[in-house]
Amino acid sequence: MINPRPFVVVAGLLLLWQLFVWSSGVPKFLLPPPLAVLQALVSERALLLDHAWITLVEILLGLLGGVLVGAGSALAMALLPALQPWLLPLMILGQTIPVFALAPLLVLWFGYGLASKVAMAVLIIYFPVAVALYDGLARTEPGWLELARTMGANRLRMLWHLRLPAALPSFASGLRIATAAAPIGAIIGEWVGASAGLGYLMLQANGRLQIALMFAALTLLLVMGLALYVLVDRGLVWLMPWAPHSLASPSAYQPRET
Amino acid sequence: MAPSGPADFDILVEQATLQYHGSPLFERLDFSLPAGSWTCLLGPSGVGKSSLLRLIAGLVPAAAGKVRCSDARPLAGRLAWMGQKDDLLPWLDTLGNVLLGARLRGQRPDLARAKALLEQVGLSAQATQLPATLSGGQRQRAALARTLMEDRPVVLMDEPFSSLDAITRTRLQALAARLLAGRTVLLVTHDPLEALRLGDRVQVMAGHPARVEAPICPAGPPPRRLDEPAILVAQGELLARLADAQDLAA
Questions:
Q1: Residue A114 near residue A61 (C-beta atoms within 8 A)
Q2: Residue B104: closest CA among chain A residues belongs to which residue?
Q3: CB contact, 8 Å: A160 with chain B?
Q4: Where do the domains of chain A lie?
Q5: Do B59 and A150 touch (CB under 8 A)?
Q6: Contact A147/B103, CB-based, under 8 Å?
Q7: Which tens digits make up the pLDDT trace of A121-171?
Q8: Closest residue, chain A, to B58 (C-alpha)
Q9: Which one of B85, B103, B104, B159 would you mutate to disrupt binding with A, by most A Cβ within 10 Å of its Cβ?
């Protein structure tokens, strides 16, 4: 049940790219043809995979941390409504500071290693997850809540058995956005200060005019990000068979037959 | 353990006042639900029927007055609620939805009884299906089974059958009449025929602030046939009262 259209689109774009390089005669150090990128991917695969592995770990740890902290804040606000007027402005304030601006500071505080990149990813992921889940928790169908009240449910059980499952589709939207944004955090961190990772490799390659290698690293990053998104998306659909699916999955929003 | 079986206490609404966005829906309203009888409440839209139902259910607080039981014990924990929508949770299968009450109270679910109830409402084959795969009538039957699972002496229902087609509605009415026998039931409805078919007492709520008029008591055990002369006479009277109530509201 794989949708062939994205592959057709990608193949078409690659063909256009190759044709452009052939016909325009643009120098290789400005725009290498896709075949050269493929060559770099194959010949430098050991180097690329080493760095990719580090970036992947940063992204995954960031995703895990961001989801845990984000979901924790949303749950805390839902369970203790008195917390909400204090926490929500803080969250919005945190989100309005561009992570780019914070990156040098985070590197200064957390060092050149993994921690500063994970912190960056957590910062980017936290907000969409927390807001989406909180929004979902605040919008439980009123009829369900009334029914639960007449059944004698307490706050905690109502949250666990009713509001949380009801908020999962909303949480899933937040998680999809967070998954798509997670690599940004890791890459910014690597650009600002790192000794490993795909972002670091791209900067190095760029500086040495190894543009094919830079494109190869970019390609790998793209594939990694896409694979992560598809995995998360499919996982969410599998977890919530009752919920309307994401826009990206081919089964969603199919036009009605007339 | 929750009290169960037939109701042996009346419910009395005394001098109740309820406001909606600042204006009173009803003021110093008296209303009663006799033990073990089925009361149907009709009236123009917006007159406050659902609000009265929610007041009795404890979902909204009264601005003044009170709801009490004739045995002086609280009503909370002794009533089951069935709203306008079926309110089935989309992530639980039919059986899971029927067992919702126990789950929300942290009690051990009585699986055998839930299955027996599903059998009674004719949903045994759909026990493991999600609500989205059920028809409107099946969903409402699942909601009825969930209500019965609570096994409360008092059942409050807010137009539970209004979204169903005529035949499905008639069947569900008969099913509900059979399974809810002996309990104190308050059914809010827009359908005069439904009220006459099911109610021991049929009452019209009208006016602003609203009053509940004296009951019409159709003869014979529910569910009644609608072509009996006595029911047809009662229907004429009920329609006249509803028309008056509508004029009052206009």
A1: yes
A2: A153
A3: no
A4: 34-242
A5: yes
A6: no
A7: 998 899 899 999 999 999 999 999 999 999 999 989 999 999 999 999 999
A8: A150
A9: B104
Alpha-helix residue ranges (DSSP H) falling in A25-163 = 34-43, 45-79, 84-96, 99-110, 114-138, 142-150, 155-158
pLDDT surpassing 50 at residue A252:
no
Q: Exposed/middle/buried for A64, CB within 10 Å: 0-12, 13-18, 19+?
A: middle
- For domain A34-242, give its CATH number from 3.90.226.10, 1.10.3720.10, 3.30.470.20, 3.40.50.1010: 1.10.3720.10
Find residue B33's DSSP bridge partners. Answer: B11
Token pair of B17 as six digits: 């006042």
Q: Is A50 on the interface with B (CB under 8 A)?
A: no
Determine the Cα angle at A97 with ends A95 and A100, to 5°: 110
Enumerate residues 6+ apart whose C-beta is below 8 A from B172: B137, B140, B141, B144, B161, B164
End-to-end alpha carbon distance in chain A: 23
Which element (helix H / strand E) includes B137? helix B136-150
Residue with tokens 């063909």: A15
Q: Which of B165, B163, B187, B189 is nearest to B242 (CA)?
A: B189
Count of C-beta atoms within a 10 Å radius of residue B10: 16
Contact check, Cβ <8 Å, B130/A241: yes
Q: What is the ipTM of this complex?
A: 0.89
Indicate whether B4 pLDDT > 80: no
Contacts of A95 (CB under 8 A, 6+ apart): A127
Q: Residue B189 pLDDT > 70, yes or no?
A: yes
The kind and range of the H/E element at B30 are strand B23-33
Determine the Cα angle at A42 with ends A61 and A36, to 5°. Answer: 110
For A211-240, what is each residue's pLDDT tens digit?
999 999 999 999 999 999 999 999 998 888
Mean per-residue pLDDT over chain B, rounded: 90
pLDDT in tens, A3-41: 888 889 989 999 999 999 989 988 888 889 999 899 999
According to DSSP, the residues that pair with B135 across neighbouring strands are none
The number of residues making up chain A comes to 258
> Which residues have CB under 8 Å from B210's CB, separation 6+?
B25, B26, B29, B43, B47, B48
Query: Amino acid letter at B208?
Result: H
Q: Which pLDDT tens digit goes with each residue over A66-102?
A: 999 999 999 999 988 898 899 888 888 878 888 788 8
Distance CA A48, CA A197 (A): 9
